[in-house]
Each structure stands twice: as structure tokens, then as C-alpha cells.
Design a protein that fits this description.
single chain, alpha+beta, SH3 type barrels, six-stranded mixed sheet, Purple Acid Phosphatase, chain A, domain 2, disordered N terminus, Deoxyribonuclease I, Chain A, 18 helices
Amino acid sequence: MKFFVSVLTIMGFLLFSKDISIDVITTNDLHGSISDQKAVFMNPSHPPDIVGGAGLYKYSLDVRNESSSLLLFDSGNFFQGNPLGMYSNGEFIIDWMNTMDYSALVPGQYDFILGQEVLNELADKANFPFIMSNLKCTGCALKSSNIKDYIIKEIDGLKIGVLGIVNTQIPELVPSANIFGIEFVNGAISLQKWVPELKGQGVDVIILLTSSGVPWDREEEYNKFDYKIKNNLIDPYSMNLSALELGRFANGIDIIVSGGFSKGYDSPWYDPNSHVYTFQNYGNGTGFGHFTIKIDKESKLFKGYETAVDGKVGQTLLSDDFDIDLVQYEMIKEQKNLAIEKKYSKLEFKEKENRLSKNILKKTVNYDVWDIQKFGSDNNLEIMTWNCEFFPAAGDSTIKAMSEIINDIDVDVIAFQEIKKLGWFEKLVMHLPQYDYVVSYNSSFFDQAYIYKKDLFKLLRQVEPFSENDYNFAGRPPLRLDLLLTHQGLDIPISLINLHMKCCDSGLQRRIKASEMLYDYLDNEIKNYSYTNFIVLGDWNDDLKDNLDEHCFGPFLNDNRFYFATDFIDNDLKNASYPKEPYISFLDHILTVSDFIAPEAISIETVFIEDFIGGFEMYETLISDHRPILLSIPFNDIKNNIKPIELMKNELTGKKQVVVVYNNMTAIVEEGDKIGKGKILNITNEAVLFQTKSKLDTLLIR
């Protein structure tokens, strides 16, 4: 049975009571996911269908046809996280929101992911205001006339004021260049300013939009906060406040519509101090909220809210319950297909500018507390994976410790997992003058990141496979970094894939499925693009020593094209990457392709950082409960003496040819020709696939 909006609540009250009813539909944390999808979070084996934005469009249109008034709000994080949102830097999501006729939104942390300039352009494109009541701009890019401190809407003779509090923790969560010149004012202080301002303009009802989030276990969290306030243990006017905490100081506000967490609640939180109702829905385009607010017609006082459907605010957009608008459905489907095609396109060997590193100001402060061994070598390529638990585990102390460690060990590339605060990761990179960096754009629960030596590599691309379907990756799609190794005349592409799999026994089936997805992805790259230069590394959250039905490595172990470098050292418990009792295990692994790097060429080791800084207890306090794993490859085992320099065509046969330099001599070769110690397998417009006895190389034509 499909949901229909009840006419009784709209017409009946208008005719026979003194109440005015206003319908309110809310979304939050869409993360660009407005296409149809499978509800794997409900039933991974047989997931029901979610109709997405086409269903919400149809539903809201039905409400407008039956209601005298509708307010439609979004509480942030509206485009990041899905190819559909990222494909056009958020523009397509704004186009869709314009067709929905949104009333207003407040940005969230992820809306700054591409920088404030992009956010400003999106505000210009929107037919509705972006409300940022607590932001102060000093030379920043947020200049759009569509960015407001507040708005006042007149409905049925009432004045409805709308404020927007942007998450004040954003400076810790995004790179500083993305928010340069922006001050995030404490939410409680901002309300003290703007609520009287609205009341002074005769506003009858005030609605607050915020991206500060209602956390999990809201009752427990509120009670802890309330205890601290009553016992003067914290100063609420000098700290980041969640939407739940902000509600305690929301005197004069009637409704809070929150985002920032994808956790939804079927009923709002009622604050016993300010008497405000705080609403929050599940995110990722799976549902929305719908309720009506009741205002006494004569006194114009807010009386409360009523649910609109089945006694609950939150609604899941299941196909059994919601119809779709076919025009919207086809429009969204077309854009999704374009976005997916772009995401999974063949790697182009063209250098890209590193936007993050371009805008970072390096610091020259050097920390030198410990005597730490150098692991880097001019003769080897060193690649490390490092899970830095809840980074930064100890704030500034973590930054100081890790900057000294990284500068001293002097390896070429490090892949990081479990980055909790990207703003702090930028602080770390400021102290690493040799390195450029990239971070994930589409994770929703901890981020991945890389640093790489800028004199060794050129950036080709970063992409996050499966960001359109990241449930099995626990909201952390793999972060692929394509680099061009340029050491001593080399021009060899290397593709790193950074993983942080779902943890614990409860995540095993998701890890297995994620591993199958990753295997299919790599298999496609090898078969369709003849590209093999992959190194997959990170926290797999499984041990290779586990029984076959207790880990996720099966597809790779069953294919001799791949091998785990870590399999050479994981049998010795002293090498455990997770050394804590009672779960001592080897969870962090490095996988590669035998045609790219021969197993006999590599060196692999666990790096015992604790030995240099005073023991594991100190290491865990400052950095992590995981040890890093280091892969070393001699440059001579990567290097080849075949250099393609020009693409040609055989005028007689029409076959592609390539001019190569070999041992200071020039030759023209075709597919199948043997040269040096190998054979030309394939020639494309950009590269040559060169097979030797021990490996397969992709050689750029330059």
C-alpha cells in the first residue's frame, strides 16, 4: 500500500480549529545518493529497493498538491560521497534540489570538501538560500548573495524565522585552505545574537537548521553533557556543541532540524530545559522526515508537532511504499551512468595538479626527541601502510611524534588509515617538507590518506572505487592513488589502493563481499586495460593465518597472478601488526601483482616504532595500536631499459608501431616483436605493455 498525505490534518484543522498546520519535510546527509539503490543495511542477502530522489520528488509534489504550506529543509552534507554528487562538483544535486523547491539548507563539513569556492558556486546556483548564521568571513570566498544569516518566511499570516548553525568542528575536519578566512562562531553564542534579532522583527516561530549532529545513544550523551553543565565541568560557550547539546541553549527556538550523523530517529528529542524538539533522519538518500508543526491561529504560539505518516517522523523510501516520478527517475539515472562511466574510465597518463599540496604552507620546525632508524634508501622504493588509530590520538603530541618519525624513517610513500580529523592530518603534513599528500573525498566514517615524496612522483589521479556502493567497505571506499615514478629517468605508473575494511567478526561477510568486489575491479583492469601495476595495502582486518572460512582473502589466494607480500612474515607472532592481547594478529597487509613485481624482488617487514620511542605503551598513547608494515623494492627490479618515445603506424598493415630507445639505440617495433629481454604485448595510444620473464611493465610513450 502506497503512502498518501492525509487531507484531514490539513483541511480539518483549518476549518474547525484555531490551529495553523505547516508541513515540514527534511533531509540530511544525502551524500549525493539520490539514485535508486539496494537497502543492504536492512537485509544484505535480499535487500529491498530504495526509490531515491525520484520517489521523494513525487511524494513532496503530492504534499504540495494537498497542503496549503510546505517547508523543505536540508541539514548538510548534501553532495559528497557518491559519484552522482561528485561528478559535477555538486551541481547536479543542486539542480535536483531546485526542482524539489527546497526552502533552505545549512552546509555540513563535507560540503567544504572541494573548497569554499565550490560551495560558493553551488550557493549561486541554488534557487534557495544557504543559511550560515555562525560564520564570519574575512577575505573568504563565501560571497554569494544567496548565503544568508537567516531568512523570514511568511505563511498564513505567520512569520517563520530560519537560522542555520554550521558544525563548528569543521576546522578540525577539513584542510585549512578549504576554510581560509572563515571563523566558525560557537553555536550557543550565535543563538544569543540571532534569536533576539528575529524576535525583534516579529517572528512567531523559529526553526534552526544545523549540521552539528544528534549522536548515537542520544539520551546517554545528553545526560553526560547535562551533568557536566550542572557541575561547571565545561564551558559550553567555548566548545563544539552537537545539535543535541546546542538544543539545551536553544531558548526561543521551537524546532531544530539536524544533520551531521546518518543516524535517524522516528521521533524527535525533546529538551527539558529549552523545550525545543530536535529532529534527525537516516542519511545517504534512504529516507526523509515529515511532520507538521502546529501554531495557534490567534496567539501565534507554537503548540507542538504531529507526525504525518504512521505515527513516526522518519520514512524509508522503499519501493513498496513510494511511487516515483518517471521523468525524475530517468534524469537521475542518466546522470548516474555518466558519473559511473567517468569513475571507472581507463587511467590517463597525464600529470594533475595536487590542489591540497599547492595550498599548504610548509613549516620548518624540526622535532628531534628520539634516535630513530632510517628505513629509506636511495636504491629502493619504500611503500608503507600505517593504521593510525583515531588520528590524532593525542592531539599536538601526535603531530610532533609522527612528524619526527616520518622525517627520520625517510620512506617514499605512506598509506594511512583511520584518519578521524583531516584538518589535523594537514597539520602533520605541514611538518613534512619532502612530501605531497592526498586524502579521501568520499569516506563517511574515518578517512584514508597518502603522503608521497614529491621529487620521486608526479600525481596522475586519485579515485575511490565503489563510492556509489560502499556498504561492504563500511562507508570507506578504497582510495586509489595513481602516481608516475620518475626516479632516475623512470616513467613508470604505479597504482596504490588504500583499504580500511570493516572490523570485527560481525564484519566478516562484508569483508568477504568487499574483497570479491575489489578482486573483480582489479581483474577488469588487468584483462581489459592490460594494466598490472597495482599495490593494494591497508588494514584488511583479517589474518592470513585464519581458517579459510574465517577471512576475506579467498579470491586473491586462488589466483596466482596476485600474492600477499605480508605472507612471508606473518607466521611469526613477533611480527604481528596488531600486538595486543588477547587478539594478537596480523591485520595489515600488502598485496601486489606478480607480473608487476616479482616475489623474489621484494623485502617486507613490520616496523617496530615503539623500539625507538620508549615502548609500546608510549607508542599506543601517541600514535596507534597498529604497527606499520613496510615494503621495499629495488629500483633495479622496477627499472627497464626499454623507453617508448613515439607512436607510429605501419602504412602497409595499418598496425600500430612504436619507436623505442633500447641501450642507446633506436628501433621501431610492433605488437609481438621481441626486444631486449622481453616482448611487446600491446600498444595503445599512450603506453606499451612489455613482458619480460619475471614481470609485466606498462611503459608510457613519452
